[in-house]
Amino acid sequence: MTIDEQSHLKKEEENGTNPKINRYWIQRYDLFSRYDEGIQIDEEGWYSVTHEEIAIKHAERCRGKVVIDCFAGVGGNTIQFAKVSSSVIAIDIDPMKVQMAMNNANVYGVANHVDFVVGDFFSLAPSLKGDVSFLSPPWGGPNYCKVESFKMDMLQPRDGYSLFKIVQSITPNIIMYLPKNVDLAQLEELASLSSPPLTLEIEESCIGGKMIAITAYFSRNAA
Question: Which domain of life is it from (predicted)?
Fold first, then answer.
């Protein structure tokens, strides 16, 4: 997305004239409580960024640790990790998303605690070191909720099994943020087929008492 396109999208947001994001616009302060202070979100970010309340809960599990945000997007989780962790490596293949994430981290005053990387996570994985890997890969757009059971092979840009195997080469401590209709049996399979098997904790991620996603916490030892 070019600077002109960003400006045009911002005007559409403010005027409420972009039908693709209207349903998310009313949630802007749930996504970023400091939205009015200069937060930048691209079209994909509106439906893929983690709600701030949930991102804070993810971050609490990573206090004092080195966190790798493997698909950082516009930085919703990165910001909360940076507040409490030892350090954060935030990766995204889209340079404009990384630029937005840097801007948003500056709004929250935590940019100095983050190493932002423009690159392909899969290419970078062999060289990465960290205590926790956070995975919130693309779910395939808003239509994910139309399927009865979301399968691991629906994740993008690679299926969940391949992705999980790659991430395990970095650390066994993995957090996956997934659709609320994800196949829980497949998450259990990811844990049990690991060598050695991993501990799995499944958490319903809720906003206003309504479940909107599932967070899966994998670890070598029970928390």
Answer: Eukaryota
